């Protein structure tokens, strides 16, 4: 009876689906365990073998927990809103909802392309998902709850006294009774104070404008990453090297009125919560840095009028604009300030720039707008800036300090302004030296006693003694900080403050394919649609591009207005601003739906609530979350924020959503290359390039992306080691060059040989190509890099499952290396794992059928089994999946050599291997006579006694040289061992009638006869 993985896989996948084997119960006497994967975005490209890595790991863990008696929730869904689907719709003229559905369920798209479908691909790998709880963020029955959460945020404010979000009605009540002077809330800056009588006299619109300054989601003019090419705002993590990750379009900084989320209200709780969760230290540190807590002082520097103007009012400065506010963690260095730097986007720049500097400042601002915040933060080498022509007054010395702009200062961090202390900060030091002697840039002042700053700044707070600083002279960092804050407060030009780098999150996107806001506008002010009328469903549009006048794509909708009488969406041309009003044209960002999805899995079919209180109370939070580390400061931060908010409002049962987090590494592809001359249609194989005279030659270090020389002999190799490739080209007069080109890895065999005929048929311009090879073998170059469709190095799990079966794929991916590390894929290694499964099968079957017997297991049989039980249980709990696979191989090899076919061994072995290879395990279990699934059979109990050695194989030495070994019971005394050894005929042969001078015996260790 042969092992046929395709038949076995199909049989048991059908069984699991029909019997809902992995359906979790919301009420169970068993302890609960919630295992979650970061759900995928369903692209048309489908899964490659790198995608299931984390899913396989979580599935192994989930299956193991079921064996341990847990009620396991292991769901799956799709993060199905997003920019890629919209861009594909624009390019192909298809509806995003249609392409998204085909990408998930499979089928044929409008272009006739066959799409496998994520669901079918996932099913083929044999995951134990509870598919009855599937969610899709783009389904109205899901996003109605996302809209509802948005309304809750809008109707909430953050009370610093209670340190939680509260209903906006409690804030209104305070305003009505006592005004806002005693309100301790997270709010916009520069809130105007008002009394209760003033509040009650305000019009409804005026009151709404004030409340927007307190709401947890609010409208504000914000600096955003605007991508003209995509016609939308991008999040920081959607930008790479200053261009959009999707399409590579330029991105600029631009001010727009946007919805924002007041995540900054939760900065301290987000920071402290990291102490209570089992996440990697690297992810925690990323979030700590992103939140960026710093303690210091807020300092106000008065803006001085230019000499050509008499009063600051001539600059158009209001009372609050007469000062530049700066947050600093080093107020002790205030006497070292020699200039100030504003972010180019700072509101004051346009107001204080002098006419003489206007052109230079505007040119610099335009240039800076093309760089993302991340790029500016990361670039510590480039020094650039422009003098505004304005000066500010030092609060103590009254000295005039020049005000510059520089892109190393960010509008979104602190106040968007810094007091520059070159002697104590490296970037200020470099800036001051670069512009030394220009536009009033002062000499660097040294305010540290006994410190040399001639070569670099002194940034340490340790061992500081302040000098040249008036009333701070002789003080250390701590004392000077306290003293200067007290003095600033006396003159009302500063105060102590804790600041956070974390900025409020922009929540608007100028896209079509996203959650519609449940918002309409009356007199330009936002109003929430009542929750009973949700969902507000995306309308049909003819085009997914912005309108001709620059409005978002929803501006193209013919039916997109809110009728307050009928409480429904009606035709846009019916807007009368009396009872029918315009709806919000932006949509929510991709992270909206993913910020709460784990709760929906708890009660996925609840039509009235996002989840019932009972379901939330039972499942509480995710016990294990597996996903990529690239979401550290995006999804993982936003989801913690939403969870904390829902906890404040009495909906979420826990403060943190994910107890334990593991980041799986990446499976890398092994790309293949050929080398093409750019002036002909000739292709050179890799072995040709590295061959001797009269062949094109290139040193291996230059293989990727560098020119190949046409007629340079191997003697030039040493030259290439030291000289730039272009120099060598010029020296040899070579005009021809070649470049590496990716080749589809499916055209290459395990010996790196290219199938030339397949390659020529691949593209029309390759049909008449000439191939230069060696000994009839055209060898490709190889390089390990990210698995990507664009690099033609993608291996699909479907192909692996079809050829070797799902269990081989699962075991191989776990065998590749530690879960958290990146590792290269090598299809050639698959056959070894497949061979192991066939060897496992042969323990149970021969050509005639089942060979399992009821023989009593031997000690060696039991030892092999229990070593494996112990190792696998420990490995799964510690997520060391690769070493479990090694142990399986060792165990099967041992049992095979022991000729073991005992049911007492092979039944528990099937259970132990089932989390990793569930299909073959189910089949073995069934063939052994069981009628129910193996999936919830109790995991075998490890018994230490089977690993306790009862015998010892002693090396027997004569004068220190080992001559033979002997196996003896471990409970023998030294005298008993000596008696046995002396009677052994091998001993007598070695002694040749002599009597040893000494017999050294250490029970359990050594036997040595001397003399």
UniProtKB/TrEMBL annotation:
Which keywords, in A-to-Z order, does the entry hold? Aminoacyl-tRNA synthetase, ATP-binding, Cytoplasm, Ligase, Nucleotide-binding, Protein biosynthesis
Detail which positions bind ATP: 789
- Specify where it is mainly localized: cytoplasm
Report the GO terms under cellular component: cytosol
Q: Name one Pfam family in it.
A: tRNA-synt_1
Q: What is this protein called?
A: Leucine--tRNA ligase
Primary enzyme class = ligase
Might you name a Gene Ontology BP term for this protein? leucyl-tRNA aminoacylation
Q: What positions carry the motif 'KMSKS' region?
A: 786-790
| GO terms assigned for molecular function | aminoacyl-tRNA deacylase activity; ATP binding; leucine-tRNA ligase activity
All residue ranges annotated as the Leucyl-tRNA synthetase editing domain in the record: 288-488
Which Gene3D superfamilies does this chain map to? Answer: HUPs (3.40.50.620), Isoleucyl-tRNA Synthetase, Domain 1 (1.10.730.10), Valyl/Leucyl/Isoleucyl-tRNA synthetase, editing domain (3.90.740.10)
Domain Aminoacyl-tRNA synthetase class Ia, first and last residues per copy = 11-155, 778-812
The record's comment on protein family reads: Belongs to the class-I aminoacyl-tRNA synthetase family.
Q: What are the subcellular locations of this protein? A: Cytoplasm
Q: Which E.C. number(s) belong to this protein? A: 6.1.1.4
CDD domains documented for this protein: Anticodon_Ia_Leu_BEm
User: Taking every annotated instance into account, which residue ranges of this chain make up the domain Methionyl/Valyl/Leucyl/Isoleucyl-tRNA synthetase anticodon-binding?
Assistant: 862-973
Its UniProt entry gives the catalysed reaction(s) as: tRNA(Leu) + L-leucine + ATP = L-leucyl-tRNA(Leu) + AMP + diphosphate
């Amino acid at each position: 009876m042969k092992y046929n993985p395709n038949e076995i896989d199909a049989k048991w996948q059908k069984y699991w689906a029909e019997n809902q084997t992995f359906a979790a119960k919301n009420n169970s006497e068993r302890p609960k365990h919630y295992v979650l994967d970061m759900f995928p975005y369903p692209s048309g490209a489908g899964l490659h073998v790198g995608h299931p890595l984390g899913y396989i790991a979580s599935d192994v863990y989930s299956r193991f927990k079921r064996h341990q008696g847990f009620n396991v929730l292991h769901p799956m869904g799709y993060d199905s809103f997003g920019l890629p689907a919209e861009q594909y719709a624009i390019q192909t003229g298809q509806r995003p909802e249609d392409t998204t559905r085909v990408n998930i369920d499979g089928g044929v798209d409008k272009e006739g392309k066959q799409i496998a479908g994520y669901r079918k691909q996932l099913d083929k790998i044999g995951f134990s998902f509870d598919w009855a709880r599937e969610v899709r963020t783009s389904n109205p029955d899901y996003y109605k709850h996302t809209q509802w959460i948005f309304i809750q945020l809008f109707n909430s404010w953050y009370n610093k006294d209670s340190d939680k979000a509260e209903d906006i009605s409690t804030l209104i009540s305070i305003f009505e009774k006592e005004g806002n002077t005693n309100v301790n809330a997270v709010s916009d800056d520069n809130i105007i104070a008002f009394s209760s009588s003033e509040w009650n006299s305000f019009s409804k619109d005026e009151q709404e404008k004030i409340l927007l300054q307190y709401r947890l989601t609010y409208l504000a003019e914000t600096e955003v990453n605007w991508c003209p090419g995509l016609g939308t705002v991008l999040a920081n993590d959607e930008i790479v090297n200053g261009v959009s990750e999707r399409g590579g379009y330029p991105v600029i900084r631009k001010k727009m009125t946007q919805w924002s989320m007041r995540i900054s209200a939760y900065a301290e709780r987000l920071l402290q919560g990291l102490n209570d969760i089992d996440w990697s230290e690297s992810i925690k540190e990323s979030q700590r840095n992103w939140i960026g807590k710093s303690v210091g002082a807020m300092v106000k520097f008065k803006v001085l009028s230019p000499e050509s103007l008499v009063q600051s009012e001539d600059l158009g400065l209001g009372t609050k604009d007469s000062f530049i506010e700066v947050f600093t963690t080093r107020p002790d260095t205030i006497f070292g300030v020699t200039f100030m730097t504003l972010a180019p986007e700072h509101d004051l720049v346009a107001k204080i720039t002098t006419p003489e500097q206007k052109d230079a400042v505007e040119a610099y601002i335009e240039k800076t707008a093309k760089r993302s915040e991340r790029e500016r933060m990361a670039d510590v080498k480039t020094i650039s800036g422009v003098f505004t022509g304005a000066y500010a007054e030092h609060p103590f010395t009254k000295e005039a300090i020049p005000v510059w702009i520089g892109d190393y200062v960010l509008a979104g961090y602190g106040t968007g302004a810094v007091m520059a202390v070159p002697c104590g900060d490296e970037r200020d030091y470099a800036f001051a030296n670069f512009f030394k002697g220009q536009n009033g840039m002062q000499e660097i002042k040294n305010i540290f006693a006994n410190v040399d700053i001639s070569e670099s700044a002194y940034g340490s707070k340790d061992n500081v003694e302040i000098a040249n600083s008036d009333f701070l002279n002789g003080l250390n960092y701590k004392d000077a900080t306290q003293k200067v804050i007290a003095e600033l407060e006396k003159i009302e030009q500063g105060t102590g403050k804790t600041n956070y780098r974390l900025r409020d999150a922009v929540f608007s996107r100028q896209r079509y394919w996203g959650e519609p806001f449940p918002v309409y506008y009356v007199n330009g002010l936002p109003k929430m649609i009542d929750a009973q009328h949700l969902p507000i469903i995306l309308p049909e549009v003819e085009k997914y591009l912005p309108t001709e006048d620059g409005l978002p794509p929803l501006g193209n909708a013919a039916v997109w207005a809110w009728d307050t009488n009928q409480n429904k969406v009606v035709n846009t041309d019916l807007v009368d601003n009396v009872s029918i009003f315009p709806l919000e044209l932006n949509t929510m960002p991709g992270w909206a739906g993913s910020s709460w999805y784990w709760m929906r899995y708890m009660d996925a079919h609840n039509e009235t609530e996002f989840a019932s209180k009972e379901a939330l109370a039972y499942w509480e939070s995710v016990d294990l979350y597996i996903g990529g580390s690239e979401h550290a400061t995006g999804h993982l931060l936003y989801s913690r924020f939403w969870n904390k908010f829902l906890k404040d409002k009495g909906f979420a049962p826990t403060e943190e959503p994910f107890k334990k987090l593991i980041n799986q590494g990446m499976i890398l592809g092994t790309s293949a290359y050929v080398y093409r001359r750019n002036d002909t249609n000739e292709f050179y194989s890799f072995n040709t390039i590295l061959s001797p005279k009269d062949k094109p030659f290139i040193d291996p270090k230059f293989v990727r992306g560098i020119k190949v020389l046409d007629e340079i002999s191997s003697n030039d190799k040493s030259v290439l080691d030291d000289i730039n490739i272009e120099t060598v080209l010029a020296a040899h007069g070579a005009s021809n060059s070649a470049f590496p080109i990716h080749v589809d890895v499916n055209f290459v065999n395990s010996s790196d040989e290219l199938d030339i005929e397949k390659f020529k048929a691949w593209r029309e311009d390759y049909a008449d190509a000439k191939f230069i090879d060696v000994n009839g073998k055209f060898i490709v170059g190889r390089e390990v890099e990210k698995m990507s469709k664009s690099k033609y190095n993608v291996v699909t799990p479907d192909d692996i499952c079809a050829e070797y079966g799902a269990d081989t794929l699962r075991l191989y991916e776990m065998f590749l290396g530690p879960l958290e590390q990146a590792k290269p894929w090598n299809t050639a290694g698959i056959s070894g794992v497949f061979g192991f499964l066939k060897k496992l099968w042969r323990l149970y079957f021969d050509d005639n059928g089942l060979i399992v017997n009821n023989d009593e297991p031997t000690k060696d049989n039991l030892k092999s089994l229990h070593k494996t039980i112990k190792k696998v249980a420990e490995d799964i709990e510690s997520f060391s999946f690769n070493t479990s696979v090694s142990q399986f191989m060792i165990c099967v090899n041992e049992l095979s050599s022991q000729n073991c076919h005992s049911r007492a061994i092979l039944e528990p072995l099937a259970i132990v291997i089932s989390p990793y290879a569930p299909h073959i395990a189910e089949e073995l279990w069934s063939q052994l006579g069981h009628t129910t699934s193996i999936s919830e059979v109790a995991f075998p109990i490890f018994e230490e006694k089977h690993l306790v050695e009862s015998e010892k194989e002693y090396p027997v030495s004569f004068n220190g040289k080992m001559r033979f070994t002997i196996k003896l019971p471990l409970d023998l005394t030294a005298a008993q061992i000596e008696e046995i050894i002396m009677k052994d005929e091998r001993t007598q042969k070695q002694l040749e009638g002599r009597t040893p001078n000494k017999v050294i015996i250490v029970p359990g260790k050594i036997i040595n006869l001397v003399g």
